[in-house]
Protein: Cytochrome C chain A
Organism: Geotalea uraniireducens
Amino acid sequence: MESSRREMLGLLGVAIGTAAVAPLLGQQALAVPVRAKAGDAPWPYVPLDPKAVAERAYEAYLDGHCMYGTFAGIVGELAALKGAPYNTFPLAMMKYGAGGGAEWGTLCGTLNGSAAAIALLSKNPTPLIDELFGWYQTAKLPDYRPGDAIYEIAPSVARSPLCHVSVSRWCKATGLHSLSKERYERCGWLAACCAKKAVELLNSQAAGKFQASYPLPARVQECRGCHDRGGVVENTRGKMECGVCHFSLGTGHTKI
Amino acid sequence: MESSRREMLGLLGVAIGTAAVAPLLGQQALAVPVRAKAGDAPWPYVPLDPKAVAERAYEAYLDGHCMYGTFAGIVGELAALKGAPYNTFPLAMMKYGAGGGAEWGTLCGTLNGSAAAIALLSKNPTPLIDELFGWYQTAKLPDYRPGDAIYEIAPSVARSPLCHVSVSRWCKATGLHSLSKERYERCGWLAACCAKKAVELLNSQAAGKFQASYPLPARVQECRGCHDRGGVVENTRGKMECGVCHFSLGTGHTKI
């Protein structure tokens, strides 16, 4: 009987819905009627509150940096609300993406973590990741202030999904140092706003309303006309802004 | 009694070691005496056969591209040999890293997947990831030919952990196209050799024998003297080779 009562309560929790149950449950797991085995992907997605995820991502950032922050913000929120299988994910592994991958400055950890979460939770992740990356490199970010923010942070435009470029352009925009406490705080805000954006995208896709807003820029399409599939110099791949690194094309580039 | 016999056999399997047990087991799970809960990280690591992992990574690449290939090569091998918790990991999520993250050309997927696996399985992952990235950007790769290889592939030196740079430099070295069947095959070989290297590093760390061979290059240290922590222009972070993108420093750079 005790077992049946527990099952009943678990199913009732799901029926009541996430928002009503969450404050009562905290980290406690609820029975979730998921069909996926833990080893499968994607896992089922239920719409989340973007602001709650942003706040959780900022707090997680303080524990494990940028990639962990965004991933734990999203998947940790599902674990807190729904239990298994979300609470079986070894979240701490995502700390490797800090500083663009073990401090190498490659893919921004807030994007790596958000993309990983999207891939775990969406049946069609690529359009959402494209949108997230396109937004990241063109928007003035961070665009969300966590409730427990320590410093005030001015935004910048990264023009790239790379940590190295993103940080340097923020330093240029603010005059602040790359290893300063303010830059550290800035990346915590970035974790919050990227996790929030990722959840907004997941929510819109789950509602059947997702529409892409960040097509490949015309200037990148122009470069790809020669350098991508079928071009006269088919010698590259990628969707990043070309001019951010290829900033002196006058030298050594065939006239076009 | 049956339960005790199973436990005995499970422990015996671990005692005999991976290589002896693997051919008998295939995909079947063994009881593994792990203390970690599925939600914790790292998960316990047991030394793996680098060549078996390389072959599995190549096969997995054909199913899900570069990041998935390396991650499934390593964690899939553990799942095949040991069962839980390795077989609970939602491997398919790692497909997002293909082509440097949804084809954006950022962090090479073979590195993103290998680093993720190292972070899942090592108590001290950063030195191994540093070594892996340092090796990747300076070695002639691929340096391993999968048994089921479809084409013969010439190697190149990437000089960068970025997919975009790695692919373009391989195209330059070979005269082949970036979207060709040979380049696709080349990245499968890369998945094999990066997963193999990652497992060699994990094995050496597990044996207490790991030693770093790829320190930060002197020319990067020189740049960081001014641009990193405490420098006169502390405006960046990262460990990538500076000159690969900053190839015309004569223009617009203060004389040093």
